Amino acid sequence: xxxxxxxxxxxxxxxxxxxxxxxxxxxxxxxxxxxxxxxxxxxxxxxxxxxxxxxxxxxxxxxxxxxxxxxxxxxxxxxxxxxxxxxxxxxxxxxxxxxxxxxxxxxxxxxxxxxxxxxxxxxxxxxxxxxxxxxxxxxxxxxxxxxxxxxxxxxxxxxxxxxxxxxxxxxxxxxxxxxxxxxxxxxxxxxxxxxxxxxxxxxxxxxxxxxxxxxxxxxxxxxxxxxxxxxxxxxxxxxxxxxxxxxxxxxxxxxxxxxxxxxxxxxxxxxxxxxxxxxxxxxxxxxxxxxxxxxxxxxxxxxxxxxxxxxxxxxxxxxxxxxxxxxxxxxxxxxxxxxxxxxxxxxxxxxxxxxxxxxxxx
Length: 362
Prior knowledge:
Blueprint: E1 8-17, H1 21-32, E2 35-40, E3 49-56, E4 59-66, H2 72-80, E5 83-91, H3 94-103, E6 108-117, E7 120-128, E8 134-139, E9 152-156, E10 163-172, H4 178-189, E11 192-197, E12 208-215, E13 222-229, H5 236-244, E14 248-256, H6 259-268, H7 284-288, H8 295-298, E15 304-308, E16 311-317, E17 328-335, H9 345-359
Parallel strand pairs: 1-4, 5-8, 10-13, 14-17
Antiparallel strand pairs: 1-5, 2-3, 2-9, 3-4, 6-7, 7-8, 10-14, 11-12, 12-13, 15-16, 16-17
C-alpha cells in the first residue's frame, strides 16, 4: 500500500445538518469569525433545503437545514441536534476512490454522480462511517463556481478570528467500537495509527476514556476516535453518546498561528470556554519548559500548554456550542508539536467534569 493510496488531498469541507441554517450561519459568523461565501435555497431554485457556506482560512463549513419535517436532514437534526453530517474529502478521482474504498469494505451511500451548473462539473460520491456520519468524495476538475454546483455567491463579510484550517476532528463511538473504526480507517482509507491513549493516560478520579488517533501520511487529516472506559461516574464520552443519541463528531479542532489573539477575539464575540483553575499554571514552566508566550497572557484566558519531543502546543476548548452537551470546538496553536496535549488531559477532563456536574450528568 502506498502512503496515500486514495490520493486524498485535503478536507474539502465539513457539513453540519442543523435545525435553522440561517441562524446557525449568523452564529458562526458573529461568534467564530467565519465569512459567508455561498448560498443555496429557494432563491436559487432549491425547494427542499437551505444551505450556507462559510469560510475562514482554508476551512469551509457548510450549514444545511430542510424545509421538509420528514426529510432525512430534519430527522437527523431532531435526533442528534445540530451536528456534523459530512466530512468531505477532496480527491483526484471520485470514481476511482469510491471504487477502492467500497472494495475495501466501505458502505456506499451515494454512487458517483455529476453535479453541474454554468460554472462546470463536480463529481461526487459518498460512503458511511461511524453513526450517521458520512465521508463524501469530491473531484472538482476545473470547476469555477463559488463552492459546488447549485450554490451562488453570497458574500457576508465579518471580522476574522485568525482560524487557519481544520487541525483534526474527534469521533466518539460506543464502548468496544474504537478498534473497529480505527481498523476501518486503516483498511478503507489507508490511514495509520499515529497515537494511542488508554484509560491509564486519560483518566480522573471519576471517569476515563480511550482514544486512537488515525492520520494520513501528511498528518494534515487526523481523526482521533474515542470510546468510554470504565469509571466511577459517567464519562464525557458517555454523556455525548446519550445526548447525541449515538456516535458522532465530538469536536472540531481549528488551527491558529496566534492563539492569544484568536481566543481573545472569540471571547469578545461571546464564545465560552472550559475554565481551568489558576493552580494549573503554578508549575507550568517546570513541566513545559521555555515557551515564546508569557504565562501572564495565557493564564487570564485559560490557555493550556504541553510539550513533546517535537516542540510544544497551546490549546483551549470551548463549551458546547449547541443546546445539548455534544459538539464543541478546540482552538490549537502548534509550535512543532504534532501531539494532542497529553499532559493537559487530567486538567482538561477535570474541567469538563465540573461542567458535567453542573448539568447533573457526572
